[in-house]
Write the structure tokens for this entry.
Amino acid sequence: MNRREFLGTTAATLAITSFGTGGARAQAKVVLKATDVHPLGYPTVEAVVRMGKKFEAATNGRVSVQMFPSMQLGGEKEMIEQAQVGALQIARISVGPMGPLVPELNVFNLPFMFRDNAHMEKVIDGPIGDEMLKKLSDHPTAGLIGLCWMNGGTRNVYNSKHAVKTVADLKGLKIRMMGNPVFVDTMNALGGNGVAMGFDQLVNALQTGVVDGAENNEPSYETGQHYRYAKFYSRTGHLMIPELLVFSKRTWDTLSKDDQAMITKASKEAQQEQRKLWYEMEQKSIAKLKESGIEINDVADKKQFQDAVKPVWDKYGAQHAALIQRIQDVK
Ligand code: GTR
């Protein structure tokens, strides 16, 4: 089904999902449309597919998930819009594009916010993670329920010109960043030229030389085919952004309390299950990249990069000083 056909079925979907009041609810089938920019088999996609199987098992097939992987419904901007109007129910997105909508979430988007994976996981698994999901769910206009977090690895710079070993190597490189000013400012502070662009436009932009490179974790770089056009992958480690699983608030309000509880519980399980899949995938992607002759280098002096992004912290972090302190205090 392409995007136009999908949108054509929206009215029918709404009829099904809003059907459930009183006695009719017991029989009404609920098909939850889910989407992700990544392909089938990618950890975030697989975790949601498995969640759907749990719904089917728990409800005797009454509730199921229909997955639209690989940007079939557009990029993350489109996914968010469609979830907001109830044209789809489950969207797996990055915290990246949510920062401008829910300011506290932007703290997770600050460069070098988390010390390492263990720190990030402890934050999202703990009270701060729960609070942030609630902030999103309670937001008066975001129109989304925050279900859970997922791992998204560490984002590193890749480009078609040369390995990035020092901040000076970024000079003059046009690097695609996610559509959020904090990221463009981060790349500019590092000396490159940050270009905001949707993930759905990136392969073409790399292929045509509209940008020299981008930044992402290894699995996105590999499965997104970016490595074919930008062969230098440099471990700058400037961002570690957890992934978000969100649910359309419009549909959520039509669900029974029992269905809501089932989805909430399965989401919490998905957060842990995806993590295992994530680490396996990371290793698989790194092996595949090496086999394909990709040059991967570690940046020796990370401090240089951390010092360079200080203006970004001053600009976006100052208003969230207390929250940042709490995150840093998580040991
Ligand atoms: C990926 C992430 C996506 C999307 C993408 C991007 O790592 O899983 O949700 O944010 O990066 O760069 O746009």
Notes: The chain has two domains: 3-152+241-282, 155-240+284-329.
